[in-house]
Amino acid sequence: MDHDPDQNLSRVPSQPEVCPSPRTRKLLTLLFAIVVVYPFVKYGFVETWGYTGFDWGIYYQAAQDLRSGKSPYPHEVLAGEETASPWNKYMYPPLFARLLGPFTFLPELWAKRLFVLANALLCLLLLFPRGKRFAGTRIEWMGTVGWALSAAFVLGWGPAIENFRVGQANLLPLFPIVVAWHQLGGFDPPKEKPRNFRKEATAGACLGVASAVKLTPLVYFPVLLAGFRFRMAFWMLVGFAGASILPGPRTCLQYVGAVLPELSRFPADREAYTFSGLLQSAFERIADLAGFNEPASTWTGTPAITLGGLFLAGVLVFLFANRRRLESADLVAIGCYLPPLLGGVWFHHYALALFPILVAIPLLTRRWGTSVSSSSPVLTNTIGSPAFLRLAAFVIVLLPGLTYWAPLHAMVQGLATALSVSSRSLFVAGNMVAFLVILHEMARKERVP
Q1: Is 387 within 8 Å of 192 (Cβ atoms)?
Q2: Which whole number is the average pLDDT over 354-376?
Q3: Helix (H, G, I), strand (E, B) or coil at 421
Q4: Helix (H, G, I), strand (E, B), or coil: what is residue 17?
Q5: 429: nearest Cα among 401, 389, 391, 392
Q6: d(CA 388, CA 366)
Q7: C-alpha neighbours within 13 Å on the C-beta side of residue 426
Q8: Using an 8 Å Cβ cutoff, are 94 and 72 in contact?
Q9: pTM, 2 dp
Q10: Of 17, 174, 210, 390, which has the fewest CB atoms closer than 10 Å, so is most exposed?
Q11: Helices of type H across 167-273
């Protein structure tokens, strides 16, 4: 029989909590606004309010071309000519350009501003923490700590702020993913068996739409198969096919027949923000220390990519082994971390990682809050609690992602210098650890109510 952590909740002696006074709460709110809200507004919007950005110019032109009946893709790519780099041309799926069509009725700068504000509004509406996510803790201030941590990550996560700064596309697929998660129950998945057909079909279709905006969420398909969510996997394919054809069959065929083969010519970037990129950097460092004469970059790529593939295989085996413990909503949260870990070429690609982080913080907070006694001293409830140590470690390894907070950025740079590694390596390694923590916590048999 599984142990319910709240089984003996009524037996815990009631003790008055130490709550801050109204004046102290106002001061703490002001401090939070200065530390968290000010950098979010300054770096996400104010600094780049008059800046269009290189990437946005490419997106805007592609959307204009598609709206006027032209192809959004470069002529040389459609003609089969080899290009020097895919990064200075529109090489995204056609659905993204179609979604940007309404913005092209505005001048380019104002279109970017409206796009960024719409992304920010959706991000706050869908991701900003609600108090009920932290209900169930025996001590109220523990829930407040969890809420503050979640709010700090929503407003301080560097990859998301970078998307706002330059009008990047990485938050767009996040929105249908969050909708899919809510369809499946979110923090409170339904207990009825069999699972709800309509909600699983809707959730699967939302994941397909996300994959049609940017291809990296296609990793959800093997995740769903490993978790035995075949119905969701089927509707994901239906949603992906329907959303891909929506901009027009001709444009869809151009993307499949000309753009994808062109993208496949380019090898993985050794400086990419991926698990494989992290391994390749580590191998090159070892080779340099060992004094190899041959340039390490010529042979470290293959083993790094192979190990990256084995990492994905290991995750899928883990999901298969725990398929009965994991809810469908858990698979959505877990799968959202894989696109940046496996295909995150740039820092801003980790905007998707914000969602599983925000799912994990309430889970870890509620486990902390239900593992301690309200009659114990505050110090025992924090330093003496393994659940608190897990929450603290989870937050600490993710601090390199809060890069727009100047004190934290300086600390991360100092640590990277002391360890003779790059801040990129610290960031990717921290996200790897955070992902493994999420896997472990979601697969635990006991669930916090």
Answers
A1: no
A2: 81
A3: coil
A4: coil
A5: 401
A6: 10
A7: 23
A8: yes
A9: 0.87
A10: 17
A11: 174-183, 197-213, 220-226, 230-245, 249-254, 260-264
Crossing angle of helices 174-183 and 108-127, in 10° steps, is: 20
CA 400 → CA 118, 430, 441, distances in Å? Answer: 27, 8, 22
Structure tokens, 326: 């994991």
Structure tokens at 59: 């997106």
Give residue 167's identity as a one-letter amino acid code.
G
DSSP string, 347-388: GGGGGGGHHHHHHHHHHHHHHHHHSS-TTS-HHHHHTT-HHH
Residue with token string 């027949």: 257
Q: How far apart are CA 125 and CA 175, in angstroms?
A: 10
Please, where are the H alpha helices in 378-422?
Answer: 378-382, 386-397, 406-419
Can you say whether the dihedral through the CA atoms of 371, 189, 203, 163 is positive or negative?
negative
More confident residue, 401 or 1: 401
CA atoms within 13 Å, Cβ hemisphere of 417: 6
Written as one letter, the residue type at 90 is Y
| Type of residue at 278 | L
Give the least confident one: 144-148, 323-327, 368-372. 368-372
- Report the percentage of the chain scoring pLDDT > 90: 39
CA 225 from chain centre, in angstroms, equals: 21
Q: Which amino acid is residue 74, in one-letter code?
A: P
Neighbour count for residue 303 (Cβ, 10 Å): 13
Residue (of 277, 410, 423) closest to 345 by Cα position: 277
Q: Contact 329/214 with Cβ under 8 angstroms?
A: no
- Which helix or strand (DSSP H or E) is residue 309 part of? helix 301-321
In angstroms, rounded to a whole number, what is the distance separating the alpha carbons of residues 443 and 425?
Answer: 27
- Coil, helix or strand for 269? coil
Alpha helices in 79-194 (DSSP H): 94-99, 108-127, 140-156, 158-166, 174-183
Between 148-152, 200-204, 219-223, 429-433, the lowest mean confidence (pLDDT) is in 148-152
Task: Tell me the residue type at 57.
Answer: G
